[in-house]
C-alpha cells in the first residue's frame, strides 16, 4: 500500500536496505582458523594411513581375519570419498565453521570408541562414520584458502592444502611404527585425539560464523544424492576389493563396478541440468581445470607408488618392520615443510610459468623412478635415500602448479564446486591407484615366478636343487619381489613422462593471483 502525504508534510526517504557484511579482514584470527583446518586435515589423513599400516597389529589384537579386515579399509575409503563429494554443498548450507567443527568432533569421537568395539560390525560402523567425517575436511581447507586468503598469499594457503597429498601419506608409516611399537595398537586409533582438540579450538575461534542457509533445501538435489552416494561407494569398494575377489570373476565385483558406473552416468546426467547441483559439470569446459583434474589422478598414482614400492620391498625381502622403514619415509615427509613454501614462492613469481614448474616436477619424479628401477635384492634402506632426496622438491612441484591452474580465475560462487571436483578426484585417484597397483603387483609376481621357475627347471639334472632347501626359495622370492618392484618403478616413470607430454597441449598459462 503506497504512502499518502498530508498537506504540509515533509516527504521522507525510505531507509536504504542493509548492506551486506564486509568480508573479514585476514589477520591473526583467520590465520589461526586456517591453521586449525589444516591441522584437522593432516590428522584425518594420518588416521587413514596409520590404520592401513598398523592393520596387522590391529587384526592380531582384535582377532579379525585378514579378509574381514580388508573391509575396514574399503568401507572407510568409500565413506571418505563420498563425503568429499557432498561436503562443499553442506558447508554453504550449514556454514563452514559449523561443518568443520562437527567433522572434527565426530572423527575424534569415533577414534576414541574404535578400540572398544565389541565386534567387527560395530567397528566397521565406527570406521564408516569416521571416514565420512574425515573425508569432509579436505574440501573445507581448500574452501577456506580460496575464500579468506588475500590474493598475494593465496598460493601459500593452497600449498598448505598440498601437504595432505605429500606430507601426510609419507608420515603415516613412521607414526604407525611409533604408536604400535611404543604405545600399543590402540593409539593407532587414539592418535587423532590431541591434534583434533587443538584443531577444534583453533577453528572455533578463528573462522567467522556464517548464517545458516537452510532455504537451499528447497532446491535440494535429492535425486543426485540417491544416485551419487551409492555410485561412489560401490566404485570405491569394488576397486579396493577387486584384487582379493579376482576382479570380474566375482559376481560381487561385477555388480559393484558395473552398477557403480551406471549410477555415476545417471548422476552426471542429473547434475547437468539441476539448478543447485553437487557437481557443476559446466566447469569442465575450463581447460586448466580439466587438465588439473586429469593430471592430479596421474600424480597421485605416482606419489602412492613411490611410497608403496620401497616399504613393500623392504618388508618382504629384508623383513623390515614399519619402524625400520620410517627413515625412508621421513626423508621425504619432513623436508616438505620447507620445500612446499619454497615452491609456492616460486610459482607466486609472475615471470614464472607454473606449467614448466609442473613439467620439471614430473621429470624429477620420473628420474627418481628410473633410478629405482636399477634396484637389486641387495638393496637395503640406505639405497633408497637418493631416490627420496630427488622427490623432496619433485612432489610439491607436481602438486602446487595443479592447484594454481585449477583455481585461478574462478568466480567466488564456483569455489565450492571446484573444491568438490578437486577433492573427489583426489580421493578417487588414490583408490584407483591402490586397485591398479595391487593388480600389477600380483600379475608381475606371477610372471616373474613362472619365468624363474622355468629357468630353474632347465638347469642341469645333476644340480641338487632339493638340497638347497629354503635358501633357494628365499632367494627366488627376493628376486621376484625385486623384479616386480623394478617393473613398477618403470611403469610409474612412464606415467610421469606421459603427463609431461600433454602440458604444451591442454593447459593455458595463468598468473599468480594479485590484489586488484
How would you characterize the overall build of this protein?
With 516 residues, the protein is mostly helical. It has 18 helices and no strands. The chain has helices at residues 28-53, 55-62, 66-94, 96-113, 120-135, 137-148, 154-183, 187-190, 192-206, 222-241, 251-273, 287-318, 322-333, 336-347, 354-372, 385-407, 415-457, 465-501. Helix 6 (137-148) packs across helix 17, helix 7 (154-183) runs parallel beside helix 12 and helix 12 (287-318) runs parallel beside helix 17. The two termini are 44 Å apart. The model is unreliable at 1-21 and 462-467 (pLDDT under 50).
Low-confidence stretches: 1-21, 462-467
Helix content: over 70%
Describe the main β-sheet briefly: none
Rg estimate, integer Å: 25 Å
What is the string of helix and strand elements?
Answer: HHHHHHHHHHHHHHHHHH
Structural class: mainly alpha
- Overall mean pLDDT stands at 87
Proportion of residues in β-strands = under 5%
Count of DSSP-assigned helices:
18
Shape type: globular
**Total strands:** 0
First and last CA, distance? 44 Å
List the helices and strands and how they pair.
Elements: H1 28-53, H2 55-62, H3 66-94, H4 96-113, H5 120-135, H6 137-148, H7 154-183, H8 187-190, H9 192-206, H10 222-241, H11 251-273, H12 287-318, H13 322-333, H14 336-347, H15 354-372, H16 385-407, H17 415-457, H18 465-501
Helix pairs in contact: 1-6, 1-7, 1-9, 3-4, 3-5, 3-6, 3-10, 3-17, 4-5, 4-6, 4-9, 6-7, 6-17, 7-12, 7-13, 7-14, 7-16, 10-11, 10-17, 12-13, 12-16, 12-17, 12-18, 13-16, 14-16, 15-16, 15-18, 17-18
Characteristic terms for this protein:
disordered N terminus; mainly alpha; 516 residues
Amino acid at each position: 500500500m503506497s504512502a499518502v502525504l498530508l498537506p504540509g508534510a515533509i516527504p521522507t526517504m525510505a531507509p536504504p536496505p542493509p548492506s551486506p557484511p564486509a568480508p573479514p579482514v585476514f589477520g591473526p584470527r583467520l590465520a589461526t582458523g586456517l591453521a586449525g583446518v589444516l591441522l584437522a586435515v593432516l590428522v584425518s589423513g594420518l588416521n587413514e594411513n596409520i590404520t592401513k599400516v598398523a592393520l596387522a597389529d590391529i587384526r592380531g589384537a582384535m582377532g579379525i581375519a585378514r579378509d574381514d579386515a580388508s573391509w575396514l579399509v574399503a568401507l572407510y575409503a568409500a565413506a571418505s570419498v563420498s563425503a568429499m563429494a557432498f561436503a562443499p554443498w553442506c558447508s554453504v548450507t550449514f556454514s563452514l565453521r559449523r561443518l568443520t567443527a562437527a567433522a572434527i568432533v565426530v572423527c575424534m569421537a569415533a577414534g576414541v570408541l574404535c578400540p572398544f568395539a565389541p565386534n567387527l560390525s560395530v567397528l566397521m560402523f565406527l570406521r564408516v562414520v569416521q571416514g565420512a567425517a574425515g573425508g569432509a575436511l579436505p574440501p573445507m581447507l581448500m574452501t577456506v584458502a580460496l575464500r579468506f586468503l588475500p590474493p598475494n598469499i593465496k598460493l601459500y594457503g593452497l600449498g598448505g592444502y598440498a601437504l595432505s597429498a605429500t606430507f601426510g601419506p609419507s608420515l603415516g608409516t613412521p607414526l604407525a611404527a611409533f604408536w604400535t611399537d611404543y604405545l600399543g595398537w590402540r593409539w593407532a586409533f587414539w592418535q587423532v585425539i590431541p591434534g583434533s582438540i587443538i584443531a577444534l579450538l583453533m577453528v572455533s575461534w578463528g573462522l567467522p560464523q556464517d548464517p545458516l542457509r537452510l532455504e537451499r533445501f528447497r532446491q535440494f538435489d535429492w535425486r543426485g544424492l540417491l544416485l551419487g552416494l551409492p555410485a561412489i561407494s560401490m566404485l570405491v569398494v569394488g576397486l579396493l576389493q577387486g584384487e582379493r575377489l579376482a576382479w570380474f570373476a566375482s559376481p560381487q565385483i561385477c555388480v559393484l563396478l558395473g552398477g557403480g558406473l551406471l549410477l555415476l552416468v545417471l548422476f552426471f546426467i542429473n547434475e547437468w541440468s539441476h539448478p543447485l547441483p553437487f557437481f557443476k559439470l559446466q566447469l569442465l569446459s575450463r581447460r586448466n581445470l580439466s587438465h588439473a583434474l586429469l593430471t592430479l589422478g596421474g600424480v597421485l598414482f605416482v606419489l602412492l607408488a613411490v611410497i608403496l614400492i620401497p616399504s613393500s620391498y623392504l618388508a618382504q625381502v629384508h623383513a623390515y618392520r614399519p619402524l625400520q622403514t620410517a627413515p625412508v619415509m621421513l626423508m621425504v615427509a619432513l623436508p616438505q615443510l620447507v620445500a612446499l613454501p619454497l615452491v609456492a614462492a616460486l610459482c607466486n613469481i609472475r615471470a614464472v610459468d607454473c606449467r614448466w614448474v609442473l613439467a620439471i616436477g614430473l621429470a624429477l619424479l620420473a628420474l627418481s623412478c628410473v633410478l629405482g628401477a636399477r634396484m637389486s635384492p641387495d638393496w637395503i634402506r640406505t639405497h633408497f635415500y637418493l631416490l627420496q632426496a630427488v622427490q623432496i622438491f619433485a612432489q610439491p612441484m607436481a602438486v602446487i602448479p595443479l592447484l594454481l591452474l585449477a583455481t585461478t580465475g574462478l568466480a567466488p560462487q564456483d569455489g565450492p564446486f571446484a573444491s568438490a571436483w578437486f577433492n573427489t578426484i583426489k580421493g578417487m585417484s588414490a583408490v584407483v591407484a591402490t586397485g591398479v597397483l595391487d593388480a600389477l603387483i600380483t600379475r608381475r609376481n606371477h610372471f616373474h615366478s613362472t619365468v624363474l621357475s622355468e629357468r630353474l627347471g632347465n638347469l642341469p639334472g645333476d644340480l641338487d636343487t632339493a638340497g638347497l632347501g629354503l635358501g633357494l626359495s628365499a632367494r627366488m622370492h627376493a628376486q621376484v619381489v625385486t623384479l616386480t618392484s623394478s617393473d613398477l618403478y618403470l611403469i610409474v616413470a612412464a606415467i610421469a613422462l606421459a603427463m609431461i607430454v600433454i602440458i604444451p597441449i591442454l593447459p593455458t598459462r595463468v598468473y599468480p593471483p594479485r590484489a586488484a
